[in-house]
Amino acid sequence: MRAAGVPVWMTVIETVPQALDAPERLFNEVLDSSVPDWLYVARDLWSGPLPDVAASVAVPIWRDPWMVVGSSTSTGDLLRRAGLGNAFADHPDRYPTLALDESAQRDVDMVLLPDEPYVFNEDDGPEAFPHTDPAGQRSADHLVRAVLGARSRHADRARR
Questions:
Q1: Residue 18: how many CA atoms within 13 Å on its side-chain side?
Q2: Among 79, 76, 62, which Cα is nearest to 128's?
Q3: Rg (Cα) of the chain, in Å, rounded?
Q4: Alpha carbon 55 to its chain's center
Q5: Does residue 21 contact residue 49 with C-beta atoms inside 8 Å?
């Protein structure tokens, strides 16, 4: 594409701050527009000191084979900024395939079940995370809404 004269925009997004840098580049370099204030507020809210880890979580992204969020992902960074530790953050792969016995070797307090790319439901997971209390299996959607809701309230206060 570049050889044909088409600009190509590449990003590396492994952290929340990197995810916030991408739209700033978009506004400045592609849209030739000023960066909106909400982006600066979001950067301030998400780039501060990390809170203590309240729980260790596993976040499956696929089943058959089981795959989880591993290292160097924006999801893992978001979890950490929300006060949660990714039980597979030290895995060398970004999205490792998980052998059923491997989950038992990790300290997992909670399993967050996202609804994409695989749509998990309440029946998914007990065989892969038998050492985790089923009450500890939560919809990731609830966590994301809680975290983003709390951050949004801070952003609302910052705009006033």
A1: 13
A2: 62
A3: 18
A4: 15
A5: no
**Nearest one of 39, 21, 145, 135 to 82, comparing CA atoms:** 145
Task: Express each pLDDT in 75-131 by its tens digit.
Answer: 999 999 989 999 999 999 999 998 777 777 788 888 888 877 888 776 776 667 766
Which residues lie across from 62 on neighbouring strands? Answer: 67
* Type of residue at 114: P
Cα 73-76-135 angle, rounded to 5 deg:
140
* Residue of 58, 51, 57 whose CA lies nearest to 81: 51
pTM: 0.76
Cβ-in-10-Å burial (0-12, 13-18, 19+) of 129 comes to buried
- What torsion do the CA atoms of 68, 11, 85, 98 make, to the nearest 10 degrees? 10
Q: What number of other Cβ atoms are within 10 A of residue 64's Cβ?
A: 6
- List the Cα angle 53/12/99 in 5-degree steps: 55
| DSSP structure string for 4-65 | GT---------SHHHHHHHHHHIIIIIS--PPPHHHHHHHHHHSSPPPPP-EEEE-EEETTT
Residue type, position 88, single letter? F
C-alpha closest to that of 59 among 123, 103, 5: 103
- The C-alpha atoms of residue 21 and residue 43 are separated, in whole angstroms, by 8
